[in-house]
Known about the structure:
By secondary structure, the protein is of the alpha+beta class. The chain is built from 8 helices and 9 strands. The chain has a 9-stranded mixed beta barrel with strand order 1-5-6-4-3-2-7-8-9, surrounded by 6 helices. A hairpin with a 5-residue loop joins strand 8 and strand 9 (206-214). The longest helix is centred in the last third of the chain and has 16 residues, at 244-259.
Amino acid sequence: MATTKAKRLNELSGDELAKLLALIGSSDSVELKVTLPEPEQQATISTLGLDPLAAEIRQVFFFDTPDLLLNEGGIAVRARRVQGRSGDTVVKLRPVVPDELPKDIRRSSSVKVEVDATPKGYVCSASMKGKVSNDDVRDTLRDRGSVRKLFSKEQRGFFTAHAPEGLELDDLSVLGPVFVLKQTLEPPEYGRRLVAELWLLPDGSRILELSTKSTPTEAFQVAVETRAYFERHGLDLSADPQMKTKTSLDFFAARMAKLHA
């Protein structure tokens, strides 16, 4: 499968920009996101009026090999417990070219193809999502039960089609959990839904991400409006993005290596 490499938007040539437009046009949605450096997080929380008591609590578990073989191959496997509603599971593949996905995958109601764009670049992913109860996630991981049972038959097939040969879901290590606070806002001067996620790692480090979703047809207009909104509030868009999944995986893999050293 051909892939597209994430790169800074200002480094795109005319041909690469055309490819980005084609990717967006073939996707289901676009998510615009920015992560804030830790020194700026408290001021941003105050400026936007984020309230931890209004936030939805989430607990995120990743599954990978100790050396992060899946992540290196562009695969992310996750289970999530969510306060007040059912949990979910995801098998994600990135980067992808939407038109090169198998037709049965592209047509599946469980699959979302989305372009994630930051001030520094973009990547297109295909995520296959499933529902699971919060209790099932907790009990499976607490009792070291079969991880594969948390995932649907369709998800297991998707994983097998893209994972290294011979690697099964039950072979994966549990990396997590990450404690997450999520709050959805709709600032009057912005006029769109803005999602804030604060990821709290066990060592006290934090990742604050702000994001909004748009349809493919309005992506560039929303990107301009969102950038203007962030800059009006003095948010630093020049820092390299701290990717939630990669940062979390690196942290737990390093901790696992220390425990087994």
